[in-house]
Write a structure and sequence with these properties.
The chain is of the alpha+beta class. The chain has helices at residues 15-23, 44-47, 57-63, 74-91, 111-114, 117-132, 144-154, 167-171, 184-192, 198-203, 206-213, 215-225, 255-275, 308-321, 323-329, 356-372; strands at 7-12, 32-34, 41-42, 68-70, 95-99, 102-106, 136-141, 159-161, 241-247, 278-289, 294-305, 331-339, 342-343. The strands form three sheets. A five-stranded mixed β-sheet has the order 5-6-1-7-8. Strands 9, 10, 11, 12 and 13 form a five-stranded antiparallel β-sheet that branches. A three-stranded mixed β-sheet has the order 3-2-4. It is globular, with a radius of gyration of 24 Å. Its cofactor is Mg(2+).
């Protein structure tokens, strides 16, 4: 029996060019090329004129003479990627990053608290658009490969769900170029053999595919054409930081409201540290002001820690230091990252003096939330307050 479609492939649309259009409103709706000598990225307006990634700059300008050519801003793209991946990891702890602008997410365990995989995907796309200002296409399927194909077919700015009973109808008519691993050389070889669709490749015997394409490549592509892809979402690569953020809208926020939001973010991140048996040394506060300018403030503690009380105290100090800027410019987003992560095994034992009570409290709160849900217990400062978040808090695990 086939499983359920619970794998999401999320892929930002024309990423570099979209960041340029986001940050410079006068570029929106216009053909944009990133990179002069060689095209690093092209907006969909430029792609419609035949411009493609890795194309020579002269050829691109001949195809689209009215294009706006901008130099790459890798720092801006990296910052945008961090913002989007923070949303991914705020959606599910099971995230496998593929590149700066795409990832797999496993959401099968979220049904009871967040809805169906399609509902999760809809909210994910809304959050990326609202909080990062970018369009993202998402494919939902039973396997990673099908989810990746679905997101590609749904572009731009789309969502496509491939239910298990529709897999063959969806995949088999597609051109062989859609197979994960078919480049120009392999596609040309298959075309010369009269194989132009995925279904035609799947009709071959496995031994024939291996003989025509080589043992490893033939076996891999034939398996995909037969809808076999057993690879799970791989989260084994441990990240050097974790983070979470919330968009706040444009209306003013009081000091008390910001403290409530900050407290909930730090509560969640500290629990993720403990769930993953990890500690951190650096707390980073990320802010986006009312004029959409961004700022970061950070502080490194003397000893690595996973204690909520310590991390919250540092985060509050950072927020206080930004209070005058927030008062003058407003605030539309607040986020926290914990970096310089290490295994909790590396933490030196301490005498039970200053932090013993807070450590015991953290342990008890974690146990209560594990058993009765993340919303079962909250700090007094959070009672009867609505920070105005558009999505519910979801439990996370490293």
């Amino acid at each position: 029996m086939r499983g359920e479609a619970t794998v999401l492939h999320a892929d930002l649309d024309a990423f570099y060019a979209s960041v340029e259009q986001r940050d410079a409103p006068e570029l929106r709706g216009r053909p944009v090329i990133v990179g002069g000598g060689v095209v690093l990225a092209a907006s969909y307006e430029a792609k419609a004129r035949g411009v493609r990634t890795a194309m020579g700059g002269r050829q691109a300008r001949e195809l689209c003479p009215d294009a706006v050519v901008v130099p790459p801003r890798m720092d801006a793209y990296s910052a945008a990627s961090r913002d989007v991946f923070a949303i991914f990891r705020d959606t599910t702890p099971l995230v496998e990053g593929l590149s700066i602008d795409e990832a797999f997410l496993e959401v099968g365990g979220l049904r009871r608290i967040a809805g169906t995989p399609e509902q999760v995907a809809v909210r994910l796309r809304e959050r990326v658009r609202t909080e990062a200002g970018l369009a993202i296409s998402v494919g939902v399927a039973r396997t990673k490969y099908l989810a990746k194909v679905a997101s590609a077919v749904s572009k731009p700015d789309g969502l496509l769900v491939v239910e298990p009973d529709r897999e063959e109808a969806f995949l088999l008519p597609l051109p062989v170029e859609r197979l994960w691993g078919v480049g120009a050389v392999t596609a040309d070889k298959l075309h010369r053999l009269g194989i132009t669709t995925v279904g035609q490749l799947g009709e071959l015997e496995a031994a024939t595919a291996e003989r025509l394409l080589g043992k490893a490549t033939g076996a891999h592509l034939h398996a995909l054409a037969r809808l076999r892809d057993p690879r799970p979402v791989d989260t084994t690569r441990r990240r050097s930081s974790i983070g979470s953020q919330r968009a706040l809208g444009s209306h003013p926020r009081s000091v008390e409201e910001l403290d409530v939001i900050l407290t909930q973010i730090v509560d969640r991140l500290a629990r993720r540290l403990r769930d993953g048996d990890r500690v951190c040394r650096t707390v980073v506060l990320r802010l986006r002001y009312g004029d959409f300018a961004k700022a970061t403030r950070s502080r490194t503690v003397h000893s690595p820690t996973d204690r909520t009380t310590v991390l919250l105290a540092v985060a509050r100090e950072l927020l206080v230091s930004a209070r005058s800027e927030i008062s003058e410019r407003g605030i539309t987003l607040i986020g926290v990252s914990l970096s310089q992560l290490a295994s909790a095994d590396s933490l030196q034992p301490e005498l039970p003096i200053d932090w013993y009570d807070s450590a015991r409290l953290d342990t008890v709160l974690d146990a209560v939330r594990d058993r009765f849900g993340a919303a079962s217990v909250a700090r007094a400062t959070q009672l009867d307050r609505d920070p105005g978040w558009s999505t519910p808090l979801l439990p996370e695990h490293e």
